[in-house]
Amino acid sequence: MSTQTSPHRSALPAEGRARVQRRTVAALMLAQVVGGLGMGAMLAVGALIALDLSGSRAWSGMATTMITLGAAVFALPLASLAARRGRRPGLALGWVLGALGGLVVIGAAVAGWFPLFLAGMVLIGAGTATNLQARHAAADLAEEDTRARDLSLVVWATTVGSVAGPNLIGVGGGLAAGLGLPELLGPVLLTTAGFALGAAATFALLRPDPLVIASPPDRRPEGGRSAPRRSPLDALRTVARRPRALLAITAIVSAHTVMVGVMTMTPVHMSAHGAALTAVGLTISLHILGMYAFSPLVGWLADRLGRVPVLLAGQAVLLVSVAFSAGAGHDEVLVTVGLVLLGLGWSLCLVSGSALLAESVPAEERPRVQGVGDLVMNLGGACAGALSGVALSLTGFAGLNLFAALFTVPVFVLAARVLRNPTQA
Predict the structure, then answer these.
(1) CB of 230 closer than 8 Å to CB of 40
(2) Which of 13-17, 118-122, 192-196, 216-220 has the lowest mean pLDDT?
(3) Which pLDDT tens digit goes with each residue over 51-64?
């Protein structure tokens, strides 16, 4: 009987567990490549489509806001599905919902209906939630001394699609024109196709399910005695009792909030000062390169130097990045440097923080705690995206960056507490 569906599984020997882990990481990486194509393409044009439909710079920030809000909305349901049924159903469903969102955005843009566009962006957020939750699946069966590395490889795999996506604006535009659609919808076609391929790869290849194997026999999804139902409040209590878990989530939320707030308005800032669409696409591509390309190195450092030092290094890089962007003015090169550093700081915090969170809670509690972490992370990003357009209008790009820097403060405070008591869970 298949390991995936058998209700009575025995624990795998170390060699079998390692083999399943290698297969899991490979399957997740493939899904991230094609799914990342969808994410990168949408990031490049979402704000511009919103600007075209709404006619307002302040409303243009709602594109990324809705994606981030959607990622928050779907984080817990997808995590709960994983806790009940395993990682594979949750991840596959998330990719499918993201693809559906791409179709809704296309229909809304053709009809010129901004509210429907926003609804489609919320569904696309399910794809973002799935992309983020895939890293947790890589940690389920990982050994402690390689957990950050395995997790980082899945994060890194997003690089290929996410960097290629914004640079395929021209190709996508030609495809859209061939179908009688506006040029800006070309990347949305790529988004839809990338998410659909991510769903197919996950459903076909993520077997056996890593969470099913990692969980205790009497608490496994799909078999044994069902784990007790836990509310998000229970998960928050679990985090609050564990200083290292609290630090991990706070660092991830801080990095994501800073990153989304600044990145959302960068295309609008550049376009307003005459930057070509190709230059905007290149800047976003390099930013995404900073987010994902160095992930394996970040994972290696987190395994060798420790999660907390790498996490703090990430916060420091975020501060340097906003300083660059705040002083960039209209200089496209300096804006790009700031965006690359912004992505690198996010990567340092995400990889080290995710590894720290995974090892701070028991396996059977991980999905819901990780889901709550992603929920708070994306709520922070959604708020940052919503306020970024207003902040840009009121204070300019420099003021937006300086405001974003404030979100690093809680991380340093919590890190000092953890470092004072290194033996605490």
Answers:
(1) no
(2) 216-220
(3) 888 877 767 768 87
Residue corresponding to tokens 């976003």: 284
4 domain residue, yes or no? no
Quick one: residue 180, left, alpha or beta (phi over 0 = left, psi -120 to 50 = alpha)? left
Residue 8 resides in a domain: no
What pTM was computed for the model?
Answer: 0.77
Q: Is the pLDDT of residue 246 over 90?
A: yes
1: in domain: no
Positive or negative torsion for Cα 363, 347, 250, 132: negative
Number of domains into which the chain is organized: 1
Q: What Å distances lie between residue 249 and 64, 118, 236, 298, 303, CA to CA?
A: 21, 28, 10, 18, 18
368 near 80, Cβ under 8 Å? yes
**Is residue 287 domain-resident?**
yes
Structure tokens at 84: 């009940």
**CA 399/CA 253 separation, integer angstroms:** 21
Q: Which residues contact 347 (CB under 8 A, 6 or more apart)?
A: 155, 290, 291, 292, 294, 295, 298, 314
Q: What six digits make up the tokens of 408?
A: 């690093």
Q: What is the pLDDT of residues 9-21, one digit of tens each?
A: 335 666 788 889 9
Helix 62-85 with 87-111: angle, nearest 10 deg: 150
pLDDT, tens digit, 9 for 90 and up, residues 218-230: 566 654 444 455 6
End-to-end CA distance of the chain: 39
CATH of the domain at 371: 1.20.1250.20
| C-alpha span between 159 and 174 (Å, rounded) | 24
**202 — pLDDT class (breaks 50, 70, 90):** very high
Domain that includes residue 56, residue range: 16-219+230-420
Q: How far apart are CA 73 and CA 92, in angstroms?
A: 17
> In the block, which residue shows the tokens 């998330």?
94
pLDDT at 151 over 70: yes
